[in-house]
Each structure stands twice: as structure tokens, then as C-alpha cells.
């Protein structure tokens, strides 16, 4: 009997313990689920906050990029650009002019004007002057002093290259066998001279040696090319020469000015076709509006010249070169063209 009673008590205790364990398990499960739910909610909230924060960062970055772009756009063409005015006497001016067109152009806006050329230079001579056409020297003794020394340019085949000599041209800076100096033209004897910049040791050149032309063309510059007055364009040669010159300046911002001589109409058409929007029809402008814009009352001779498709004599000093009015008009036409092509900003115009 006593044994049966103990068994009953044991069963009751076991049941109670099972109930307690079940309660504990149930409680613990609910608590865990609540914790997980809370953690999940917090994670979602954190993710949401992170997403919002990332979105804000992206928006701020976009705003900054847009601001930077706006700032960059506002800086385009607002600085004073370097303009290379390259050519012959139509660029450099003559003794009968007070100023050449580069001078008047500089008066119109804040430019950094640099001129390259010689009074009678041809396009082929310019290619030598710029170092595009390689020239060599042989059998030359460079003295230790800065005494000018006659020099003969040679081509790659060893024959004389007289393109610069025929133009009575010069080169501001060259290096020959490690010696730096300049090339000038001497009327007496019709010869080119090399003059070293600084005294040093005597240098002897006994084999064909390249004459290195030291051209330091500034990047992002503007080129104004006005050549052809002292040469005939044979089978479009002027166009080909000009393309090589333009390539030497490594710029897409350039203008090519039409020739104003009486016998250059066919050449001008070739230039117009080759250069497109870069071509400035200065002759056409002079014939239609030149005298009026210059404030000149046309003479009978002027009217006769215009009727024959020639430049009015009131704008010329000779058959090739214009006078001061001519140069002033050219500078204004160039400025207008540079503005139209967006090479410069109107803010720099005086």
C-alpha cells in the first residue's frame, strides 16, 4: 500500500515538473520571438536610415557635381587666351603702317598676343621656321665666341634647302650639336647666320646634324593664320602647307584669313572649302562693308575697284598690304569670328 502511495506521489511530481518545464519553454519562446521581432524592426529601421543617409549623400554628391560643373562651365574661355598671329607682312605690318592687326586686336580685348613670321615669308618657309620641315647642317665650325657664323640649311638628302633664305627669314631659337642660338638673315651676301647665345667651347660639325628648332607653343592657344601673299598656290599647295602649320600648333581653335590680293580668288575658294567654319572671308567683307565701317567715303577709284572685285585703294598701302584702317577692320572681324566660334568669352572684351 505504501509502495502504491509513493508511486502516485512520484507521478504527480513528474507531472508538475513537466508542467513547469512546459511553462518555462513557452515563456522563453515568446521572449525570444519578441527579441527577434524587436531586433528585426531595429535592423529594418537601421537599414532604412542607412538607405536614407546614402540617398542624401548621393543627392549631396550630385549637387556638388552639378555645382562643380557649373563652376567649370563658368570658367570656360573667361581667362585671357594666348593668340598666335602667324604670317608675313600682312600680319607683322609695314613701314607705312602705325600698327599691325595684332596690335589693334590686343587693344580690343585682354589677349596674350604672340606674333610669328617674317615680312616676306612663304608657307613653306614657315614650315622650316616652325621646325616642321627638318633641316640639317654639315661642315660647320661654331666659334667659342658669339660671333655670327654663315650657315647653309640642308635637306635629308644633303641638298640645300633655301626656303627660309629666299624669304629672308629668321628663327628665334635653335640648337645645333648642343649649342643654343638663333638664325638671322644678312642682306650682305644674302646668307643665313647662326649666333650662339652664350660664349663656350668651339664646336665642329663634321656630319649632317639636325637643326633643332626650339618652339614652346602654349597649350590651348588660338591660332590666326594669314599666309599666302608672297606665293602662288599651285594645285592647292597653300592648303596643304597651312594644314601642316595648323598641326604644328596642335589646336582646334584657329582661323585662316582669306587673301586680299587681286589674283587670289581661286585660292580663297580652296581655303574656304578646306577650312570650313575656320575660314574668315575678309576680302568679301572689305568689298561689301569695309569702307562704310571704316568711315571712309568711297572715291571713284574705290568704286571702280569694288566693281572689279578688287580691294578699294583707300584701304591699301600697296598691292599686298593694307593700311591702318585695313588692320583695324581685320582685328574687329577676327574678334567677331572668335566670339562666334566660342573660342573666347565676351567678358574679356574691353
What would you say about this model in short?
This protein is α/β, with parallel strands linked by helices.
> For the terminal residues, how far apart are their CA atoms?
126 Å
Structural class: alpha/beta
Instruction: Outline the low-pLDDT stretches.
Output: 34-77
Strands, count: 14
Keywords: Membrane, Transmembrane, Transmembrane helix
Transmembrane segments: 7-27
Biased composition (Basic and acidic residues): 48-73
Region (Disordered): 44-75
What key phrases describe this protein's structure?
single chain, 14 strands, 350 residues, 5-stranded antiparallel sheet
Structure write-up:
There is one protein chain. This protein is of the alpha/beta class. Among the domains are: 31-74; 135-214. Helices cover 45% and strands 17% of the residues. It contains 10 helices and 14 strands. It has helices spanning 2-75, 89-92, 101-108, 123-129, 163-166, 237-249, 265-275, 282-294, 300-307, 324-340; strands spanning 82-87, 112-117, 136-137, 140-142, 149-151, 171-176, 179-186, 191-196, 203-205, 209-210, 212-213, 222-226, 254-257, 279-280. A 5-stranded parallel beta sheet has the order 2-1-12-13-14, sandwiched between helices. β7 (179-186) and β8 (191-196) form a beta hairpin. It is flat. The N and C termini lie far apart (126 Å).
Amino acid at each position: 500500500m505504501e509502495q502504491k502511495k509513493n508511486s502516485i506521489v512520484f507521478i504527480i511530481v513528474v507531472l508538475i515538473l513537466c508542467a513547469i518545464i512546459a511553462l518555462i519553454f513557452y515563456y522563453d519562446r515568446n521572449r525570444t520571438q519578441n527579441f527577434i521581432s524587436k531586433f528585426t524592426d531595429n535592423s529594418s529601421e537601421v537599414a532604412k536610415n542607412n538607405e536614407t543617409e546614402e540617398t542624401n549623400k548621393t543627392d549631396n554628391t550630385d549637387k556638388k557635381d552639378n555645382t562643380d560643373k557649373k563652376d567649370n562651365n563658368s570658367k570656360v574661355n573667361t581667362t585671357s587666351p594666348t593668340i598666335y598671329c602667324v604670317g608675313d607682312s600682312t600680319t607683322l605690318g609695314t613701314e607705312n603702317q602705325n600698327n599691325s592687326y595684332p596690335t589693334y586686336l590686343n587693344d580690343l580685348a585682354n589677349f596674350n598676343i604672340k606674333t610669328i613670321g617674317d615680312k616676306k615669308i612663304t608657307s613653306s618657309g614657315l614650315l622650316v621656321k616652325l621646325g616642321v620641315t627638318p633641316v640639317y647642317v654639315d661642315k660647320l665650325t661654331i666659334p667659342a665666341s658669339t660671333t655670327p657664323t654663315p650657315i647653309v640649311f640642308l635637306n635629308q638628302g644633303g641638298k640645300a634647302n633655301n626656303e627660309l633664305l629666299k624669304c629672308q627669314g629668321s628663327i628665334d631659337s635653335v640648337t645645333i650639336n648642343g649649342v643654343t642660338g638663333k638664325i638671322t638673315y644678312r642682306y650682305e651676301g644674302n646668307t643665313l647666320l647662326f649666333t650662339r647665345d652664350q660664349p663656350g667651347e668651339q664646336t665642329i660639325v663634321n656630319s649632317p646634324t639636325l637643326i633643332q628648332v626650339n618652339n614652346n607653343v602654349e597649350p590651348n592657344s588660338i591660332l590666326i593664320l594669314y599666309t599666302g601673299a608672297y606665293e602662288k598656290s599651285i594645285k592647292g599647295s597653300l592648303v596643304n602647307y597651312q594644314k601642316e602649320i595648323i598641326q604644328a600648333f596642335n589646336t582646334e581653335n584657329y582661323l585662316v584669313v582669306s587673301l586680299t590680293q587681286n589674283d587670289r580668288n581661286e585660292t580663297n575658294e580652296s581655303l574656304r572649302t578646306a577650312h570650313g567654319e575656320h575660314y574668315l572671308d575678309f576680302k568679301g567683307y572689305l568689298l561689301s562693308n569695309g569702307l562704310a565701317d571704316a568711315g571712309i567715303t568711297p572715291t571713284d577709284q574705290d568704286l571702280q575697284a569694288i566693281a572689279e572685285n578688287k580691294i578699294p585703294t583707300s584701304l591699301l598701302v600697296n598691292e599686298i598690304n593694307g593700311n591702318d584702317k585695313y588692320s583695324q577692320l581685320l582685328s574687329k572681324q577676327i574678334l567677331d569670328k572668335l566670339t562666334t566660334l566660342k573660342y573666347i568669352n565676351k567678358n574679356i572684351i574691353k
